[in-house]
Predict the 3D structure of the following.
Amino acid sequence: MTLSPAEPRPRGALARRVLIVLLVVGLPVGGVATWLGTSAWTAWRADGEQVTGAVAVRRDGEVYITVSGNSEKTTERSDKKRSVSTTDYPRLTTYRARDGERVATRQYAPVYFRFEYVDTAVRALAGEGGRVWVMSTEPAVGLHAVDPVSLADAIDQRALVDRVPALAPGVFIERGASASPVAVSGRELFFRLTSGPFLALDPAKLAVRDLSPEGDELDEIARAGAPRGPAALEKHVEGLRDVLEPVVVPVYDVGGDVDPAVGFVVSQSSLDRQTAKVRVTRWDAGATPPAPGWTTTLDDVRPDCCQRVVWRADGLAILWYERWLVAFDDATGAVRWQRRL
């Protein structure tokens, strides 16, 4: 059958023509729209974990590692005109040092978008007397101590002020800051009160001393009290060509004391940070010159910055390396367990 120009086309043929037009026109338009949405407006979205602190403490004969941190969600436009970063669900998590098992988690109040106020963050500061001292930038929570096993408050901020009235003004938190405004040096916590003075708190004795007459600034105190490994070992490994990017890690026992006779060095398997693996070497730092012992390469761990500490306890050497906890046999270097934080 032949159709004259005046006769309507069948509906099926018309539908096919419409579909073809939509495909020809729609696909490029949709592609451009998708590119604009994902590239021009949102260059990238990222979800990550931020670890703010880690503390080793002995409680009832068992050693625990309490880690503080939060999750981060970031969105940024490609034109760099807007970057939004939110810190959600600040938390504490405790791991048993013997086997790496997680024994407790405590979640603090979540934070969404606070453009003019301090984002809530928590940081594990120190372990003393079977307790973990923690700072929260949420003013109502502030400086407090928790039980490492249950993570319940052992001494909340109100009880701390009752026992140490000098802390009544509260810890000063700079507007717009998100880092915990407390430095740790030796067995003391250093901070500034909202009323102005700089104080040092001994958490074992719950005693404070005034640092203000010396005119010390908090960042200077923090730098002076920053943990470092044995100086002789640090000088020795810097001159070794076969040790790439060496970092001498401070070593503590669970009580917070330093053993100068033992050293740990974190290095890289190559200079390419994208593919390099992390190597950990135990050294006899008391020898002259320092002598290397075992070396263990961590296949899953890549070079990172900047938080590195080793605790030695009960035959283990437990490394906190940024987003990792790794427990080695202190005598042989065999990995007993590792946890991504």
Q: What stands out?
A: Confidence is low (pLDDT under 50) at residues 1-7, 32-47.
